[in-house]
Design a protein that fits this description.
This protein has 352 residues and is of the alpha+beta class. The protein contains eleven helices and 13 strands.
Length: 352
Amino acid sequence: MTDEKKIRLTQLSHGGGCGCKIAPSVLQEMLATMTPGVISEKLLVGSETSDDAAVYRLNDEQAIIATTDFFMPIVDDPFDFGRIAATNALSDVYAMGGAPIMALAIVGMPLDKLPVSVIGRILEGGNSVCRDAGIPVAGGHSIDTVEPIYGLAALGIVSPNRVRSNAAGKAGDVLILGKPLGVGILSAALKKGMLDDAGYQTMLRVTTQLNNIGAELSANDAIHAMTDVTGFGLLGHLLEICRGSHCAAEITFDALPLIGVACDFVRAGVKTGASTRNWDSYGNDIMLQDIESWQQTLLTDPQTSGGLLVTCSPESAAEVLRLFYERGYTNAAIIGCLEERESKSRIFVRNN
């Protein structure tokens, strides 16, 4: 049997975490070929706005949130991989303003390379997060694959009037980001054997913090749009808000919450291939002012289980930020604002 201590999960896959996502431009091209499906008035949120999850109205008081998210290992420890993947999957429910009610496991494992005990630890990691979220893992599906894959299909519940789409932002809204950026860079450093234990613990702390504040934020009418920052990077997911909300955005790089050690690595040239793919996909819609190349990398860095990105009225910004702090998101920060759109949805980034 394979020696479990010698197994490095990240060496069994060509990519890891949300860095595995298909580039935004390629995804748009793929979706453009789809034949329109059944149109239902009860479908409150579908695929039109590239939102985090689908939302279907059950009645005047309840709507169901449905999402799925899975990827290949971002870390080597199987239990930690399961925790990160499950936290990331549940985030899509919270980003819509709801609370999860149950999950189904999505499991694809190379049975010729991984012992059953290692696979069991991955599943247990995911189960531990679901226990923390107060929901059962009620089943799932597993297959034998070339590379290890794990994630969840998650179901949640929300009142129809508390759904927070990424397409409901308003010009003048303040932008608040709940977690620091740099997870993709840390994952690249880990794969290169450059990340020490302190850096790994930082990475784990960020990626396993549930975004359950989303269910609380949706009760505030001053909060207009929400999404979570994952594989397309901050700029990619903010651009989805801009396009859906018919707004432009301006952000200040110096205001961004960043993982300190990630800044050190990126200055030394460490980054993921997904960061470059992200920029190639949407760089034409970004206007940079006095931004250095390492800063651009952080702006496009694929986040795994990243923070909530919230738009809210200027009058409510201080209260919303205080709530983030009180709920343990100590790096949350105001990073910019939405503006009236000119000819197209664009993001303007300046240094200070």
